[in-house]
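From the methods appendix. Each design record in this collection lists the tokenized structure first, followed by the designed amino acid sequence. Records were kept in a plain field format so they could be parsed without special tools. The example shown here is representative of the layout used throughout.

RECORD:
FOLD TOKENS (465 positions):
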């Protein structure tokens, strides 16, 4: 079986972060998550993550899905892989991929193609490389006469001629697992840093008569990592532009990309327009012919066709076809907005079903409610769903007309075609086609405010004169 060891023990001191560097996010996914996803897509599902600094954060993120090994002292990349020895020995017959947990753009195609070359050439180790126009800072690949690899030379040790080489080490390798175990045993910390370098396995393999090969990937972004916040921002912008380019190729239109951020799992159909300031996250799906934005935040929400959302925040909900929402609307989790609904400004919907062609014009809260078709909500309506201890539901039938400033005290049911008078507080069920009026008795005290005004305007006078 083929397996992977992902090195994720780094601190990243220059980041000044309180979590392990691989847990810093690129488009809402930890860098480690990007690497794991690439492995899974390449069908390398047996994974060991080598942890180190604040390992509990990574353990919590993995939630037992993968094995881990702790590198309590960070003594180099070779030392990190040594910590996974038990994992490696458990299945030593196949091949092992070694990846960096803070290099998020390793892709499944590169992993598969490198493995194919690795096995075809019967290599003990195959280094994944890339060619850069500006290779400064990266280890240079010295090719052998047989088109394998002779050495990896770090820039500080490179000659002027070697510095002109544009092929660089990505930090990712395929090993024959049995050979990797043997080569790890031969590593020594004979260098200025006193560390065990995984790159030294190349020389060891060659000295033992084993073949070391190179796979040159077309995806030059596989080498990108982050040592500073500036690097991290570059990763985020690179990922953002890649995703926007992908959607544009699929027929999605962007009026302007300022402030537009789209997650890796978001799906958008052709003909939809995304406007500035729009953020799409999680497993959001958007149908064709929609207009989303400006300034929308949509997360884990399914949106149908020909919808218009303006300055809307929506979470874990379903919005069906031909819906118009906004501006300044909050759709909270577990809501379903059915086809043809119109929702205006300053409306909040939570854990509710809003029936077809219903209109909620403005300044309304609908929570824990089941609303029928063609209902009209007047301004200031509130479903009073919480009694301080538990949540209760309201049920509103088809074609109801809810007067302005109506309070529906849950649990309450309005039948079909019910009207409520403006300012009513409805505390009991209302039958079909009835008018519900529930207001307090008006009491008028004549002259009351006049006496108050006299006291304020003429403080010397006594009240009552």
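DESIGN:
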């Amino acid at each position: 079986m083929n397996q992977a060891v992902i090195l994720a023990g780094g601190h990243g001191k220059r980041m000044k972060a309180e979590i392990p560097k691989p847990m810093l996010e690129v488009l809402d996914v930890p860098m480690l998550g990007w690497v794991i996803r690439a492995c899974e897509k390449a069908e390398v599902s047996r994974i060991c993550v080598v942890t180190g600094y604040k390992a509990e954060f990574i353990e919590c993120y993995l939630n037992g899905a993968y094995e881990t090994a702790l590198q309590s002292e960070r003594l180099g990349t070779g030392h990190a892989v040594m910590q996974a020895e038990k994992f490696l020995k458990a299945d030593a017959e196949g091949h092992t991929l070694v990846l960096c947990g803070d290099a998020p753009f390793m892709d499944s195609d590169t992993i598969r193609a490198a493995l194919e070359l690795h096995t075809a050439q019967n290599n003990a180790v195959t280094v994944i490389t890339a060619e850069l126009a500006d290779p400064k800072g990266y280890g240079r690949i010295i090719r052998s006469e047989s088109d394998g690899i002779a050495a990896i030379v770090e820039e500080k040790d490179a000659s002027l001629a070697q510095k002109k080489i544009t092929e660089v080490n990505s930090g990712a390798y395929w090993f024959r697992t049995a050979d990797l175990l043997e080569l790890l045993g031969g590593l020594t910390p004979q260098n200025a840093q006193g560390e065990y370098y995984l790159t030294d396995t190349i020389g060891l393999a060659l000295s033992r008569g084993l073949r070391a090969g190179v796979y040159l990937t077309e995806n030059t972004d596989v080498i990108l990592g982050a040592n500073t916040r500036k690097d991290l921002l570059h990763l985020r912008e690179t990922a953002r532009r890649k995703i926007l380019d992908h959607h544009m190729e699929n027929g999605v239109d962007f009026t302007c990309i300022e402030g537009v951020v789209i997650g890796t799992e978001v799906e958008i159909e052709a003909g939809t327009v995304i406007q500035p300031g729009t953020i799409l996250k999680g497993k959001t799906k958007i149908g064709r012919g929609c207009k989303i934005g400006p300034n929308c935040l949509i997360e884990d929400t399914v949106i149908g066709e020909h919808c218009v959302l303006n300055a809307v925040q929506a979470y874990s909900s379903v919005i069906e076809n031909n819906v118009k929402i906004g501006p300044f609307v909050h759709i909270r989790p577990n809501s379903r907005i059915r086809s043809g609904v119109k929702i205006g400004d300053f409306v909040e919907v939570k854990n509710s079903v809003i029936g077809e062609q219903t209109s909620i014009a403005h300044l309304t809260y609908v929570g824990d409610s089941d609303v029928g078709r063609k209902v009209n909500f007047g301004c200031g309506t509130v479903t009073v769903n919480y009694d301080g201890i538990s949540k209760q539901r309201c049920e509103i039938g088809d074609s109801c007309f809810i007067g302005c400033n109506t309070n529906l005290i849950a649990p309450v049911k309005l039948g079909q075609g019910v009207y409520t008078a403006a300012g009513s507080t409805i505390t009991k069920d209302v039958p079909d086609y009835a008018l519900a009026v529930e207001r307090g008795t008006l009491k008028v005290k004549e002259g009351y405010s006049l006496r108050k005004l006299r006291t304020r305007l003429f403080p010397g006078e006594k009240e009552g004169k």
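APPENDIX NOTE: The two ends are 99 Å apart (CA to CA).
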